[in-house]
Specification:
Elements: H1 15-23, E1 30-31, H2 48-60, H3 73-84, H4 89-92, E2 96-101, H5 103-117, E3 123-128, H6 133-140, E4 144-149, E5 151-152, E6 157-158, H7 160-167, E7 175-179, H8 192-205, E8 208-213, H9 227-235, E9 239-244, E10 257-262, H10 266-283, H11 290-300, H12 302-332, E11 348-350, H13 355-365, E12 367-368, E13 374-376, H14 385-397
Parallel strand pairs: 1-12, 3-4, 3-7, 7-8, 8-9
Antiparallel strand pairs: 2-10, 5-6, 9-10, 11-13
Helix pairs in contact: 2-11, 2-12, 5-6, 5-10, 8-9, 11-12, 12-14, 13-14
The protein binds (2S)-2-hydroxybutanedioic acid.
């Protein structure tokens, strides 16, 4: 027997929760696990700008033939403009190249495959805590990973000094994976001054920044959320960025992400993309088209672009409102001071609840949050917030 020795793997710490939630017969169950936006009605909607773009694509598409290995050039251009801003020196100098990958995860994986295959570096430094998949992706790509501290439980803030102290052990040439905004799971981002210091540090220590940019537009705005990336780019001549359109365009199951590699000059960029093409060809051959065409249509049509920005603002503001509501309901329920959730950015709140408390929330209250205590604030609404606050108060006081 070839497969008898294979042991069952544990369920995925995030996507496994959705399965468990679906199987739970509790009529009052609440899913605050996976990072998926839900509106006030508890629905993950297709954005109107996306619907309209799809209509256009349906009417004008004449072929389903393969896309280029790196995707449509227009998609790459629009992604770079979103990341760096129109007219940025990196764009004008043609020293960044972009490749469409299936989702932010695809971009991370293709990026790490490229790092491994081209002997860029053996080691990637990853924040602790982080999105659980980061460690697995690095390992699957054949890279070693080290962890750097990120979160200070006592202050609910960034452990900035400890982070740089630990990273000073990195060897020149090592890769440092950073969350560009809306750090997952903590929701804590560096201030602009801290980004400046991180940028100087990376440059001085000759470390390669790899930015996971999965939540552009969910923190403070499309431009505001790009400041960290742009500050790093102003100091470090080379960097890698993994963008995702899953969240900001609600294209979760279309799997649209992008890998952008910034090089010292145009000639290096041309060589790099030729090798990235091989990483893509061997992993997925070439990218799926539908989601990429949606993004390209929305970002290039002024009317759809404006509609998108309005819809994205609506999602961001609803999440901010839910943070304020949750903090006040928790206070009301006697759970203690959770005001810090109002300072966090993006979809998640790092609640401070421990594994046992998370387990009790699930077993006794039908409330699903990630084992680290991460709550998806984007799943909270006026109807479930009271039950959530009371349940958290009960487990905190137990
Ligand atoms: C999350 O962190 O919940 C999302 O990024 C979804 C995922 O793939 O884990």
């Amino acid at each position: 027997m070839f497969f008898d020795h294979i042991e069952a793997a544990p369920a995925d710490p995030i996507l496994g929760l959705t399965e468990a939630y679906k199987n739970d017969p509790n009529p009052n169950k609440i899913n605050l696990g996976v990072g998926v936006y839900q509106n006030e009605a508890g629905v993950t909607p297709v954005l109107s700008c996306v619907k309209q773009a799809e209509q256009q694509i349906l009417e004008t598409e004449t072929s389903k033939s393969y896309l280029p290995i790196t995707g449509l050039p227009e998609f790459g251009r629009l992604t770079r403009e979103l990341v760096f801003g129109q007219g940025h020196e990196i764009i004008a100098a043609k020293r960044a190249v972009t490749c469409h990958c299936p989702g932010g995860t695809g971009a991370l994986r293709i990026g790490m495959d490229f790092i491994k295959q081209q002997n860029v570096s053996p080691t990637v430094w990853i924040s602790d805590p982080t999105w659980a998949n980061h460690y697995q992706i690095a390992t699957a790509a054949g890279l070693n990973f080290e962890r750097y501290p990120y979160y200070d439980r006592a202050t609910h803030g960034l452990a900035f000094d400890r982070m740089l102290e630990t990273l000073s052990q990195a060897k020149p040439g090592d890769v440092v994976l950073l969350h560009a905004c809306c750090h997952n799971p903590t929701g804590i981002d560096p201030t602009l001054e801290q980004w400046e210091q991180i940028a100087d540090f990376l440059k001085e220590k000759q470390l390669l920044p790899f930015m996971d940019f999965a939540y552009q537009g969910f923190g403070h705005g499309i431009e505001e959320d790009a400041q960290g990336v742009r500050i790093i780019a102003s100091r470090c001549p080379e960097m890698i960025i993994a963008s995702s359109f899953s969240k900001n365009l609600g294209l979760y199951n279309e799997r649209v992400g992008a890998l952008t590699v910034v090089c010292a000059d145009e000639a290096a960029a041309a060589r790099v993309i030729s090798q990235v093409k091989i990483s893509v060809r061997t992993a997925i051959s070439n990218p799926p088209a539908h989601g990429e065409k949606i993004v390209t249509t929305v970002l290039s049509d002024p009317q759809l672009r404006a509609l998108w920005e309005e819809e994205l603002t609506g999602m961001r503001e609803r999440i901010r409102d839910m943070r304020v509501l949750l903090a006040s309901k928790l206070k009301e329920a006697g759970a203690g001071d959770f005001d810090f959730v109002m300072e966090q950015n993006g979809m998640f709140s790092f609640s401070g609840l421990n594994k046992d408390q998370v387990e009790t929330l699930k077993k006794e209250h039908g409330i699903y949050i990630v084992g680290s205590g991460r709550i998806c604030v984007a799943g909270i609404n006026q109807r479930n917030v009271d039950a959530l606050a009371k349940a958290i108060a009960a487990v905190v006081k137990a």
